[in-house]
Specification:
Shape: globular
Structural class: alpha/beta
Radius of gyration: 14 Å
Largest sheet: 5 strands, parallel
Strand order of the largest sheet: 3-2-1-4-5
Distance between the termini: 15 Å
CATH superfamily: 5'-nuclease
Number of strands: 5
CATH class: Alpha Beta
Length: 132
């Protein structure tokens, strides 16, 4: 089953101080790469770029994103159909950020699950989640 990475997972991976958390996120990424099940929505790239740039600067964000681009994850672009489905999700769940609606729509399209511990994903019927 495909696993769609949420920004929360990647920001946890990059920002963790706890060795156990770092080990678990590294293992998760390695497994997803090896098994070719990891999916990276393009909106997540934007969210991670913004968060790391604000925290550590543009150079650090660029370095991490370049490594991520070569990590063997499938990047899913936002196309018109996916955008429409994300818009319908936000119409039904007005408190969900649009980026999370795009991530959820990606997971639903691919019949995968979102790698996140954000509780708002549980509001979307039929959407599966997992965590580290």
């Amino acid at each position: 089953m495909k696993e769609i990475l949420d920004s929360k997972f990647l920001l946890t991976h990059y920002g963790a101080k706890d060795e156990d958390v770092i080990s678990r996120t590294r293992t998760k990424l390695a497994d997803l790469r090896k098994e070719r099940r990891g999916v990276l929505p393009s909106i997540v790239i934007a969210e991670v770029a913004n968060a790391i740039c604000q925290e550590a600067g543009r150079a650090e964000a660029l370095a991490k994103l370049r490594a991520l681009e070569h990590a063997g994850l499938e990047v899913v672009q936002l196309d018109p159909e996916l955008a429409r489905e994300a818009g319908f999700l936000q119409c039904m769940h007005r408190d969900l950020p649009m980026a999370d609606c795009v991530i959820a729509a990606t997971a639903l399209r691919l019949r995968g699950r979102v790698v996140s511990d954000d509780p708002h994903f549980s509001k979307i019927r039929g959407l599966r989640t997992t965590w580290i």
